[in-house]
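tool_log.txt
---
The assistant was asked to compare two proteins side by side. It first ran the structure predictor on the initial sequence, then on the second. Raw inputs and outputs are pasted verbatim so the downstream comparison step can read them without reformatting.
(1)
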Amino acid sequence: MLPRLNHLTDRWAYIRDHRCLSRMKASCTVRYVSEIDTAAPAETAAPGLPQAPGAGQYPALDLANSAIALPGGQFLDALGTPAGANQWLADHNLAPADAGLQEICAARVRSLREQVRALLAAQVGGHPAPATALAAVNDALTRVPTASPLGWDAVRGMHRTAPHPIDQIVDQALGILAADAADLLTGPDAERLTACPSHPCNRYLLRAGRRHWCSVRCGDRARAARAYARRTQTTAD
């Protein structure tokens, strides 16, 4: 398991030092990260809705919360389009803003999000972790290649193949997010993980003291719902 590292470059340096990447690939990766890691991550929640507690510390938690259910049957998906997924990764210093993600790559990010959500739900509910979710996270953890794969075709014969640059960006981003999810689920903060109980909110957060809502808005909505239920019960009696 990767230790908690506050800086993306530090995480890739750790991977390099532990031989998860070849020396050449690690060197290129660290230079690439240094070029794009120039600003603090921006909030990517719904307009007027701040990040849930803990989402700034754990990008994987923010990934899980990137599809938000809102009152009135509204639904906001920050990863719903390739441009949106590209922007979300860029805001979290996981890809350059002009990476040019296509739908197939955006779908991979959304797929990992659903698997991370399944693991968070299992943790919160005290249920066994779904095998498919574990497999998806482990696949993302191990997908970053240590060297160029060996290929063959009738024209070139044996040759080393290089993945598409955008695929490399997405593989690296998903690997970091998967490692972050693993850190959250196996670390001391796992006990603080909870789901916001304010209907219809579907966000996860880390509890802080007695607070167990993801935002002031959700807390106010939950209190208003309880007050309405009490008034309705009193009228019925």
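(2)
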Amino acid sequence: DFIRELMARGETQLGRTFIHEPVLSNEDALHVLDYERATEVIKTASHIGVGTCYCRHKMHHLGKACDAPMDVCMTFNSSAASLTKHGHARLIDSVECLDLLQQSYDHNLVQFGENVRQQVNFICNCCGCCCEAMIAARRFTILNPVHTTNFIPEINQKDCTGCSKCVNVCPVEAIALSSANDPKKPHRKQATLIEDRCLGCGLCVRVCPEKVIKLKSRPERVLTPLNGVHRAVVMAIERGKLQNLIFDNQALFSHRALAAIFGVILRLPPIKQVMASKQMKSRYLERLIEKMDV
């Protein structure tokens, strides 16, 4: 019930996908903002820690781990400072972290990180077989449990040879082989994109030997919250739980009563529509949080 409530309601999620930077063309690179780049998160972090990948480590104990690097779980800023202080992560510099990121690129891992623009606290380097975020993305596809990038692949099916490399590398099974409907070659296959599943990571572009896959911008940009406070408030608004976020001490009768009253008010159609609007979730709320300096 908790997972369904967390993922099934609302557009805003806890994590987002980072673009696979090596595949960006010069033109595409112009449309990628700094907070969308894992390299920029690394270069601007006040502290950097690296630890063992929880998901891959768990699969290792089950005898199901893949051969991807294990120590590539990256934390940043306040989270890294705390984890390294208490011995739960190893403190590293940006040079070493960028090297680990390159290793992750070389192993075709997806960068999945905190869904905020400022002070990103973690980036996981995920495989499709072990990573719980990728497994959730496959299992709960229609609920969009992971935020996509602002790109989506475009496949030139006319020149696709149906080699299936893009199918095999996709961590969320967003590409499938289908009949090319070629009367001259009745057994010919071609790659077909399942857009609703696609994270827009760009791994398929990297592995395509014929270079028939390229990235294009999504019709509408994906909104990324300013910081953790912004994300928490937006998620609460979308899920109808803002009253619980404000009056969070359920042990107090006054908090329970006020939360109930506030919840009734928020369920009134006009107010609910205003609170759920993109303007409220982005510009207005963002400016308010900036002024509060949280």
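---
observation on (2): The CA atoms of residues 74 and 87 lie 14 Å apart. The chain has a mean pLDDT of 85.
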